[in-house]
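Exercise 7. Predict the structure of HTH merR-type domain-containing protein from candidate division WWE3 bacterium GW2011_GWC2_41_23.
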Amino acid sequence: MEKMLSTEELILKAQSTGIDFGKGDPYNRLRYYTKIGWLPHMTRQKDSDGNIRGHYPDWVLERLVTIERLKAEGADNDEIAKEIETKNKYTNLLNVIKSKEIRTQLISYSTLILLLIISANEFGLINIGNKKSSLIEAFSAQGTNSESVEIVASGSAVVPKGHSSVFVDSEILTADAKVIITFTQSFSPATAYWVTNVRAGEGFELRLDTPLYYDTSFNWFVSK
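Solution. The predicted structure, encoded as tokens:
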């Protein structure tokens, strides 16, 4: 949910950053900027005391700083409007990328593409390198470029619906082994996952940041 600042809070914060509203009423400056499209319209809502007051999104403070900086540098209204339009496009793009749904889709698509490439390489449809699972080596190698990576175990498992973790058995696992995970489908609503609780000769635990909506399968690889 978008954080809001009351008009009074916005003015005080703006003044604390050095913005000089002049001798006039600061509210008039805000209304003027809103009228020419530099600021969003004020909305009325209850403050922490239950009083109905005008509020602006908290990012308006940064917008005010930008406007006053450009004015101090001698920019005219057209130049300021162009700068604001550019910032709006950038902000809108960031908001889209930050949304949980988009992040999940990006992770899912990236995982699917990676899995397809790995599968194609394993079946000889493409030649990424001389060693089996060389794509995994490229993604997981942490040493020098000349250090080889050997896949010693692999398999698939499922994170059950309503769970956020699963323990995968692997007797061949060593304490210094590297574990690579590739999901074969969306793991919504989770946005992150990691390997933990690695037990030599037993297996490892895959954890996600939130329980899943449905049974979700993944592939795992163990390398030296």
